[in-house]
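In keeping with the milestone schedule agreed at the kick-off meeting, the structural modelling team has produced records for the first pair of proteins. Each record is given below as a sequence line and a structure-token line. The laboratory manager (R.T.) confirmed that both were archived under the project's standard naming scheme.
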Amino acid sequence: QVHLVESGGGSVQAGGSLRLSCAASGRTFSSYAMGWFRQAPGKEREFVAVISRNAVSTRYADSVKGRFTISRDTAENTVHLQMNSLKPEDTAVYYCAGGLNFGTIVAGRDIDYWGQGTQVTVSS
């Protein structure tokens, strides 16, 4: 069992930065690929980024590529999402997710664990 808790959300002006963190409890954290998703008001939840179990592989949505960076600290059981050059369209609730299959996380499938979400608001 893995329990995920996000933090680091908040309000920022366009062009600013935020760093989201996802703290995972449970001894099997290192067994899971970890991802970030987001859901804006009135829209479906969408993939943002994913990192493999050994942190060797990452993948990003085209909309955030070059601006966001996902990383993980296995010793601290945490996953981070560094978000730079934020835009108003990045406004959403951001969710941390864990799954065994790196490839299917991108499609939002085979997600075993979800966090409760953290709000990110970017003003113009």
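The second protein of the pair:
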Amino acid sequence: QVPLVESGGDSVQAGESLRLSCVVSGYTYKTYCMAWFRQAPGKEREGVAMIDSNGDTAYADSVKGRFSISKDSAKNTLHLQMNSLQPGDTAMYYCAAEPWCVVVGGKLRYDYKDWGQGTQVTVSS
């Protein structure tokens, strides 16, 4: 089990921005995928964005053009820049990691080996 620690969640107003971070300790795989998921109360967990070790990305349709995923390999940190936040983005956000994985066809992957504990994002109208 690889430790993943998220941070950056907050309560904001609609239209504002947040940047989430996830520190991935000891992840030494040459090829990997990392992703952000979210789960709102009473709803199923949904994929938000993913990135692989090559820098290829995939996004959920609901966040395309507003959210941007990136990674800082030197700091073993995954980021999610969230702009134009809407009340519908309110959820617990989780980061996840999977070794020996690549983005295929711009599609999100949903099976990940390692998960963080989550950080809460609340957007008020």
